[in-house]
Amino acid sequence: MAFSKETSTDNSPAQILKYLQEKSSEPVYKRGLQYYRRRKVLRYEEFKDKSGLEALVIGSEPQPYKVELKLKESGDFEVSCTCPYFEDICKHSVAVILNYLSKLNPGLRFELNDNDRLHDNLNEKAPKVKDFFEENLNPNNCTSINKIDLGVLILEKPLAFILGLIPNETMGKINILKIPPDISNHFAGEKLLPNLIQYLLALPQTTKGNAGGHRIPRGEEGSILKYAQYCTNLININNNQKFNFANDEIIPKVLVAENENGEISLKLKAFIKDSENQEIELTAPLYLLGNISYVLSEQTFYNGDFSALQKLFPFIDSFGQLNVRLDLVPKFLATDLPNISKKIPVLYDETLAPFPRAVNDNPNVMIKLSEKVNLGSTNINDFKKNHLI
User: Domain locations in the chain?
Assistant: First the structure.
């Protein structure tokens, strides 16, 4: 990501810091400040002409991310990072800029300004979908006459599902505008759309400037899709194509295999039936798991029942994959997998090795008793009569 902005007629540290705080989203600035304090900035090299610098920052990938900061005589400055983050300013860029400012002013401390940072979004509880929609509301009876277009940005890893109004002109990398607070006044007669708008407005913003969107909390994506399909047109902002909703539910399956190190890999699979009642696997499915689950494949959302895996939802990524650590394999085989197989067909990949099965049946215990007897002169018939049945 990259940005460029006129901060002032000079590149004073105060002006750069002020602009950075204004234009970075609160969670990003806080994470960047943590990265700076934890010394995540590795190699740091200023250009000979003092026009900028390059730095490496430790991130979530094995290789560090490269951040480049350029200063201009006019007061503009640009920063770019090789990470895939969607906002204009990422946490790695924040860490590098703070590192740059601290070198200009040794002893300078960076704190969160209460005037700029009114509250800690990280400690706020995200609104619940159920608090904005009637419990027994039937979306089929609430189809809006005039649907509005909402832009959808889906990041695959880590999963992020972001909604917002699409502007006429690009307003940032993600090209989604926040929903104006007064927009619900235009849909006062609707039963569903105002509820959806109020829910989106209650969500924390992903950016602080004009560009940004409303990020749906993990696990709530399906609940929002359930209602949004009846009152909005959901548009994929990456290709401007409208998302579709399938009428038929998918057929979920689970594929399990043992890795070379003894860990268990689990992968979700999604199938639909064609006109000849034959099962067809969905192409490149993306899983939005929650109380209501959807699978996205080729611009179409499919509803599916994955409730058998509910306890594992937090550990399954958007591609439907989960690796079970070696120390958790016994519990998974003895408890989790049998419970899953009761509701969802389980397929076994034994390409590398036979898949281990847990034995849950109680063993039959047999005890054999024997007694040594000194027969001496005892008659054998008398012994049989007294000791054997």
Answer: 2-104, 132-245, 251-349
